[in-house]
Every structure is written in structure tokens, then in C-alpha cells.
Amino acid sequence: MFRRPFQVYRSQNPWREIDRMQREMGRLFDDFGYAPRNRMAPSFPAINVWTNEDGAVLTAELPGVNPEDIDISVVGEILKLTGSRQPEELGEGAKYHRRERGFGKFTRTFQLPFAVEAEQVEAVFDKGILHISLPRAEAEKPKKITVKAA
Amino acid sequence: MANETNTLQTQDVEKQEVQVAEGTERTRPGRAYVPRADIYENDESLVLVADMPGVDHDTLDITLEKNVLSIRGTVEMANPDNYNLAFAEYEVGDYERNFTLSDGIDIDNITASIKNGILQINLPKAGPAKARKINVAVS
User: For chain A, which residues make up each domain, given as ranges?
Assistant: First the structure.
């Protein structure tokens, strides 16, 4: 192909350039949206998960939920958390001035990054916060391989 | 990582951060959140119920000054030892909220209790504010 090395490069289609710029800008703003402060919990309860090589700890804020009303089931690497938050029992003739707290049933299912030793799962409910410790199944733990000198 | 079905609304999950006045800063590190609260009224009193997970009897501070009821709960970061945070949907912080009380509250008999992260404050109505039945005279 014949080329003219000294001619200034011109785009064939100026709209294509604008299009590309728009995409770049959009991507830039999407990155801002990802900042942790704008992160939104998809549903109730919000959870935090902590991990190390021996297992995971899951915490959830469940203020006012009766510990008996929380149901946790673990099958392999699937953890299911169900329960309900009861509405306040109002006496006769009482009326609400302000209502911000929600109530009702909740179900969340999580896939953990490893299978869990279901027998050793422990859950503690303290001050309205649920802590579930999920030890990793022994067979799934990473094995350390020593390199032998030849 | 998570998929779910639920009946509680998404807005029920997000914590609202306390707005501090311009030019001032918090004395404690970390964030402070506004606890969600319900207020209802029955014949004897006004009852305030607030969600304060992580707060107990020892870390709760309620003061009343010039008709302003201030609720403060401090929450200690309880990060599990030797674990790394892998996934986070909520952040831990203190709770702060103020309420202005009307004159009709018997401020000497306010009682409060906290259980399972739920604060309940009972604000009894002062004598004259209690509901009175007014008889309509037959003309």
C-alpha cells in the first residue's frame, strides 16, 4: 500500500472519535461510583466476610432479631441465612409518630470460596450482631509442598 | 458472591452517616451513623425505639439537656484476629442522634433499656398532658 508519511493523520470518521471519548468518560465515572462509600448492600441483612486459610467469619447486623428466629444452614460451600424480624408490639390505642425501622422475613444465600466443615460451624449472637465462624473443610485446605533438594 | 430473596427493603440496609457541622471534626476515629428509630405514643408515654447493633449497656450514653435528648453509642471495632476482610457490605461506627422533646414529658421519670442492639426509651407524659375526656354539657 502506498503511504504518505508526511501527511497529518486524519480520522476517517469524526463521530467515531467522539464515540470513543464518550466511552472513556463513562468508564472514568464508573470507577468513581465504585468507591466504597457508595457501595450499597443488596438486601437485609448486610454482611461482612473475613477470611484466612483456615476458614471464614461472617458477621451481620441483626438488631432486635430473636436468636431463636435465626436459621443457619450449611451444605458444602453454600451458606443459607434465614430469619425474621418481628414488629414492635404496640398496646391498644398506640400510634406511630415516626417509623424508620423495617421488619419482616429475610433469606440470603452465599457461596463461599471453599467447602465448610459443617459440623464445626459456630454462631454467636451478641448485642444484635451475628458472628458465624466457618472452618474450611480439612480436605480442601491448601497443602504445603516442600521442595526437596536433588 | 451473594444472591438472595427477601422482603425487607434495600433502604433498610444502608446506614446513614451523621452530618457534622462545617468546620468541626469528630474526636473519635471512624464514622458515626444515625440509628434508625421508631417513635410511638400510647396513653401513658412516648416510646422511642432505635436500632443500635453493637452497643450495650456500658457503651451507651443518653443525656437530656434543655429538652434535647442525645443518644450516643460507641461501637468497638471487633475485627477477628488473623483474618482479612474479603467482602464488605456494611461499615462499623458509632451511633449518634438527637431528639427535641416537647414540654409535655415528665423528664424525671424517663427510663431506658437496651437488648439485642435495640434501645428503648420510655418518655412518660407529664400529668396535664395525659388525655382528658371533655364532657359536653347538654344545653
Answer: 41-87+104-140
